[in-house]
Write the structure tokens for this entry.
Amino acid sequence: MYNRILIANRGEIALRIIRACKEMGIESVAVFSEADRESAHVRLADQAICIGPAKSVDSYLRIDQIISAAEISGAEAIHPGYGFLAENAHFNEVVRNSQFDFIGPTPEAMEQLGDKNSARAVALAANVPVVPGSDGLLVDEDHAVHTAREIGYPVLIKATAGGGGKGMRVALNEQNLRTALQQAQAEAKAAFGNAGVYLEKFVDRPRHVEVQIIADHHGNVCHLYERDCSVQRRHQKLIEESPSPLLSERTRTAICEAAARLVAAAKYQNAGTVEFIVDQHDNFYFIEVNARIQVEHPVTEMVTGIDLIQSQIRVANGQPLPFRQEDIQLQGAAIECRINAENPQKNFQPCPGLIQSLFVPGGLGVRFDSHVQAGYSVPPYYDSMIGKLIVYKPTRQEAIACMIRALSEIDITGIATTASFQIDILRHPDFLSGNVDTKWVERDLLAS
Ligand code: ADP
């Protein structure tokens, strides 16, 4: 096993990885920007190295600085967390060429699945359903018009290099499509330096269901069941849960097996997530792969009892998975709420600043993964998530009641947070019945 691991990240995920290292007897090396000098991940790691000024382009995105820090510290492997460089295949390759293990997939698998159009091709070849759409990238406007006529409006134009909803446009008719195509291409070019776009049928009121995968270097691929992340605002997930409330047992089995098939076809190793949308008739369609650990991984840990970060480290180190598919049981119900420093009263405007006081909820089945405490100042430079509140109970109903109780206990003064807004969601009859889709928050909750 490794003696020392460098964590190329900050915030709660850096802490999460440090904790896994400690439990495994591995030393952890934190890197930090000047704005994070007082951060918990710096304090809790065995070593900490400053890699530059506050802005992430000058620190957490500086490949050269991170590699130097790894060399100086004597780390043998690098965990990228999520965000920042986690899905950057170039970084992954530099890590490998510098003789460190990258705790994640190979650069080749990352590249193949990171490009949405090529991931779609892998899915098709592995007999995994994809949303009906164009055969590859759109070559010109006529190609788009022709494809849209075949599959029927509305259609969705998507950037092959896309992420965070950028380069995505809905078109309701042909006239729409011509302008939307240009806009999507321009936006994709500006955001990703790649104007490649393709077309998909726009699925009405979809649910977002994703499957957690872990695969070792010995050909073993296991799925750890699904998470439902349909509660979103502007494509940002707000609440995640496992199991998905409305999925039939038959669809659950089919979607999990499809995800494992896709990952096996790409010879993908380590942890990853296969994302699907599910329509009103329980048909599921592959949309993309996230080639990294995700924010919402704890709900899967709660319902399966498997420590995903420890598993990632063992797999990267070449160890075979200690379980087989049939050993993995989904038990109980887990829900996660992302607590963001944002003001729901002011259109979710980010709300960085000093946390004057903080009361953290507890009790049976409550977990709070967070890097913040009283006296901590949330810096304006990074994303606004300050913690994840996770609950685990025997049933979904009990988990909802526990989450409402925990959210009403959490008390943060000094900055605004999304906690009270999450209570409104959890109390809503549509959420209780599981009857929500990815546009529900914007359409039925915020608009009313
Ligand atoms: P990004 O990587 O930019 O976040 P995704 O491909 O993951 O883009 O899609 C983001 C969200 O957009 C999905 O969670 C889903 O809500 C919605 N979406 C994606 N594809 C479709 C589709 N074909 N029809 C309807 N909604 C879609």
In short: The first strand starts at residue 4 and ends at 7. The chain has three domains: 4-103, 132-201, 207-445. The chain is about 35% helix and 25% strand.
